[in-house]
């Protein structure tokens, strides 16, 4: 029996999947194109408690998305919204506010797929039109193996150098993406690896 579909993607995974920056994800969420969510432990609300997945107001934590390399940064969230509802709930109580880091933030799988459908993301990024110029999936597979067997590179510059060398060896004509493109594609991976280090 096959595994069920994924329930959510991390924001880093989503940025890689869509070939965009975390800033772009934050901007789309800030204007209501998608929800950025997180899982919360039980918090006091009214006469009871609430827990589970909730939307977080991106405009309140925008600094997390704009702080390149600040993987350990945290921001306080003082309001949340149950997924599928419109009104924000202000948190009050001894345990508030909730501290949030980039690693806590998710996009629910249904939202990812709906956004891709609404904005034709997969056609643009993975190719029902022109074929991809570079083998990004091959690169990501190599990087996963490399980190598994050899550990995390010492710096983002080293990660980029590894990617450049791989493209130079594997591409039919030796063509390598420019450094800016590599930084945009590998930045979320680097930040995620630093968060786990």
Q: How would you summarize this macromolecular structure in one to three sentences?
A:
This is DUF4304 domain-containing protein. Helices cover 45% and strands 18% of the residues.
Can you walk through the features of this model?
This is DUF4304 domain-containing protein. It comes from Paracoccus spongiarum. With 197 residues, the protein is an alpha+beta fold. It has two domains: 8-127, no CATH class; 136-196, no CATH class. The chain is 45% helix and 18% strand. It is built from eight helices and eight strands. The strands form three sheets. A four-stranded antiparallel beta sheet has the order 2-3-5-6, with no helix packed on it. Strands 1-8 form a two-stranded antiparallel sheet. Strand 2 and strand 3 (48-55) form a beta hairpin. Helix 7 packs across helix 8. It starts with 7 loop residues before the first strand and ends with a helix.
């Amino acid at each position: 029996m096959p595994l069920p579909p994924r329930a959510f993607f991390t924001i880093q995974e989503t940025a890689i999947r869509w070939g965009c920056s975390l800033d772009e994800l934050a901007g789309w969420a800030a204007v209501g194109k998608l929800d950025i969510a997180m899982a919360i432990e039980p918090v006091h609300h009214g006469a009871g408690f609430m827990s589970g997945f909730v939307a977080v107001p991106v405009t309140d934590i925008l600094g997390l998305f704009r702080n390149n390399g600040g993987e350990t940064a945290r921001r306080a969230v003082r309001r949340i919204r149950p997924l599928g509802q419109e009104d924000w709930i202000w948190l009050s109580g001894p345990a508030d506010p909730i501290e949030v880091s980039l690693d806590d933030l998710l996009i629910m799988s249904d939202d990812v797929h709906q956004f891709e459908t609404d904005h034709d993301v997969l056609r643009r990024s993975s190719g029902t039109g022109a074929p991809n110029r570079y083998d990004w999936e091959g690169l990501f597979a190599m990087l996963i193996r490399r980190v598994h067997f050899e550990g995390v590179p010492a710096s983002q510059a080293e990660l980029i150098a590894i990617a450049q060398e791989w493209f130079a060896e594997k591409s039919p004509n030796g063509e390598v993406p420019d450094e800016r493109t590599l930084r945009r594609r590998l930045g979320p991976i680097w930040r995620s690896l630093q968060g786990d280090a």
